[in-house]
Amino acid sequence: MLGKNLARWGTAAVRHWRKLGACRRGVVTIEGAFVATVLGLLMIGVIDFGLAYKRHAELENAVRAGTQYALVRRPQQGDVNPIRTAVWETAPFYEGAPGTALDVEFYCECPDGSPSQCSAPGGVALCSGGIERSAFVRVRLSQDFDLLFAYPGVGTSVDLAAEGSVRLN
After folding, report:
1. Residue 35: how many CB atoms within 10 A of its CB?
2. Residue 62 burial (CB count, 10 A)
3. Mind listing the pLDDT tens digit for each residue in 87-108?
4. pLDDT at 96
5. What is the pLDDT of residue 16?
6. Number of helices and strands (H, E) in the chain?
7. Whole-angstrom Cα distance, residue 125 to residue 112?
8. What angle do helix axes 27-72 and 81-90 make, rounded to 10 degrees?
9. Alpha-carbon distance values, 20 to 17, 28, 86, 165 (Å)
10. DSSP H/E element including 15
11. Residue 153 DSSP label
12. Are 100 and 162 in contact (CB under 8 A)?
């Protein structure tokens, strides 16, 4: 009697497992959960790098403000502090924030690209051949932008930088 019950139970169990194997109820829910997880992870990455792209655009705007200020109010005797102030007033973070750097340079070049003095005693500094030199301002703003998560091949932060230069004469 015990043998017959075990046989019946075994046969019923096999039938039950076959029914479960053939049943498709809930498959869509499980597949949806997998797809939602992958899409959620992709969305987090898109948002994270979108914020980094937005910050880079803000850096470019601050650099643009500095170069425009230099065009409107040319630095006197190479004083770039007003330009630095214009950049910091436009930047999305405060002056001296950790991981940020601002470099403003006033320099002069001859038309052939060789460096030149910006002023000469008693008048305008000239290049060889009597050609007048050109004055430039270069503004470079950089920031270490912390990402929300660590990404393979990228890490936990990205270095963002914006640079602009303008010829003053």
Report:
1. 10
2. 22
3. 999 998 888 888 999 999 999 8
4. 83
5. 73
6. 3, 4
7. 15
8. 150
9. 5, 15, 70, 70
10. helix 2-22
11. T
12. no
Closest CA to 168 of 58, 66, 23: 66
Rounded Cα distance, 112 and 133, in Å: 10
Digit-coded pLDDT (tens) for 49-68: 999 999 999 999 999 999 99
- The total of other beta-carbon atoms located within 10 Å of residue 153's CB is 4
Fill in the amino acid letter for 144: D
Give the list of residues 6+ apart from residue 45 with CB closer than 8 angstroms, or none.
149, 151
Burial 76-103 (b: 16+ CB within 10 A, else e): eeeebeebbebbbebbebeeeeeebebe
Domain boundaries, the chain: 51-167
pTM: 0.74
Q: Which residues of the chain have pLDDT under 50?
A: none
What's the gap between Cα 134 and its chain centre? Answer: 33
Asked whether the beta carbons of 67 and 165 are under 8 A apart, the reply is: yes
pLDDT at 11: 77
